[in-house]
Every structure is written in structure tokens, then in C-alpha cells.
């Protein structure tokens, strides 16, 4: 009975130590994340083996595991950049990115856990300044929004591809110009629209006038040809035909005496 307490204390201590060792030797990586193993008594960050995937893992208690999110993430940033003529432009953009899964250990070793601030933000800001600096405010406001979005993506991607980061998309949500420049551009666009509308109406009126001229010329040529083809004999023949047809009508009583002018019959008593 006296030995029981003496044995119980070491057992309890041993159980506590074992629990601590197990706690230090196990790591659970959540869905959408990846682990980078750091060997304290080895060569540090393990880069020659695949990273630790999702699930439960046992490691030496003196080693550490750094967890990175492997899913696509979003960076939103508002920047002030200069146009080609030196005017300040406010750019609101987003970037979709994620670490390259197989190179996450190198990313941790060379860039660290705050790679967003160290690498991605400087890269996208540099690309935005470079791209926007090629365009005028008019181009940025109207037709070049998609173009600058694509160009910022391409330039940022060139930088991040060398930094173990995968860039999926860059979205330009808004381009804000100085109010005076914006008002001037809108006035210019309205004037251009009105000018195009006037040119359209003028062209339409010109085409209609041309159509009427061609139609009138066609009618004039037709009348000229018709007049040239009609002779006195043809008129007499047509008159005789009309008289014959009229005489056949049951509702008419025709008396023909002598002849009228130009040799045509004279019709009297037509009811």
C-alpha cells in the first residue's frame, strides 16, 4: 500500500510527458492548406520532399510545420498612378492568386509567410504604374479598360512566375479620373456623338434625294420612250377598239353617224 503512491506519481508524470510528446509530434492540416516542414536539427526547411498535404501527420517533436493556404485568394488594392500626360489616376484593382503547391517550401524559405506584402503587392503596383503610364485619360476612361487589365495581368504574371506564386486573374474594378478631366472628356464624347448623329441624318437625306432623282430620271426616260412610240395610226386603232368594246355594253345605246375628228367614229346617245 505504501508503494502505490510512489509508483503512481512517476506513472502520472510519464503519461503527462507522453501526452506532451504526442501533441508536439502531431499536426493536422485543414482542407485547402499545405504544410512546410522545418527540421530543427536537420537542414531547416525541407525543400527536397513534397509538402505535407491535408490530414493528420506525425513529426519529430523538435520539428515545426508552417501552414499555408493553398486555395485561390484575393488581393484588393487601390492605387494612385500617373497617365501618359502626368495626370493622377486612381485605380481600384483585384488580383486572384495562390502559392504554387509543389514550391511552397521554397516560397517559405525565400519569401516568408508575409509574401503578400513582400512580393505580390509591389509586383501588381509596379505593373499598374507601367501600364497606365502608356495611356491618356481619354483612353483609360473609354475604350482601354479591358486592355490595361490584360496588360497588368501579363506584366504581374511575369514577375510572380519567378517567385513561386501563381497569378490567376487581375480585375480592374474602377478607374477614377480628376473631376475636371472627367467632365471635359464627357463633354467631348457628347459632342462627338452629336456630330456622328448629324452626319448620319445628313447622309440619310443625301441618299433619299439621290433616290428621288434616280426615280424621276427613270420616269422621264419611260415617258420619253412611250411618247416616241405612239403614232396617229396607233391612236386611231386604240380608239376603234374602245368604240367596239363600248358598243357591246348592254347598258349603252350607241348611234354612230359620220366620223369625228381624226377619222374616229362619233358616239351619241350613250346612257
TrEMBL record:
- Domain named Band: which ranges? 25-189
Q: Give the membrane topology, semicolon-separated if more than one.
A: Single-pass membrane protein
> Where would you find this protein in the cell?
Membrane
Q: Where are the transmembrane segments?
A: 7-23
GO CC, alphabetical? membrane
User: Which controlled-vocabulary keywords does the entry list?
Assistant: Membrane, Transmembrane, Transmembrane helix
Subcellular location, principal: membrane
UniProt xrefs under PANTHER family = PROHIBITIN, PROHIBITIN 1
Name listed for the protein in its UniProt record: Prohibitin family protein
Q: Which organism is it from?
A: Aequorivita ciconiae
